[in-house]
Amino acid sequence: MKIKIIWDFRGEHAKLTAKHHAIHLKEFCDKHNIQYTTIDIDTPNDYHSIAYIVTSKEHTITIRDALKPHRAVVVDLKT
User: Fold this and answer.
1) Cβ contacts of 51-54, under 8 Å, gap ≥ 24
2) Which fold has domain 2-75?
3) Euclidean distance between CA atoms 63 and 25, whole angstroms
4) Tell me: the pLDDT tens digits for 5-63?
5) HSE-up of 67 (CA within 13 Å, CB side)?
């Protein structure tokens, strides 16, 4: 099972903030040897962007406790 852990950013600089946050997510995962499927951003509109990581369920508690995400969803990665 994969979990998409999400941080929301709002305002005129939301996209830049999300990009910057994604860099720190990668650094955190490297430092703590956390395997992930993807780390990326999405911009639903000009004033809302998200940074997210898709990882296995076993890493969600570590990430949640250290980085305080806003929400998470289960994702189905079947092709």
Assistant:
1) 51/6, 51/7, 51/9, 51/18, 51/19, 51/21, 51/22, 51/25, 52/4, 52/5, 52/6, 52/7, 53/4, 53/5, 53/25, 53/29, 54/2, 54/3, 54/4, 54/5
2) Alpha-Beta Plaits (3.30.70)
3) 9
4) 999 999 999 999 999 999 999 999 999 999 999 999 999 999 999 999 999 999 999 99
5) 26
Token pair listed for 34: 């956390």
The conformation of residue 57, written as its DSSP 8-state character, comes to G
| Site of tokens 């079947």 | 78
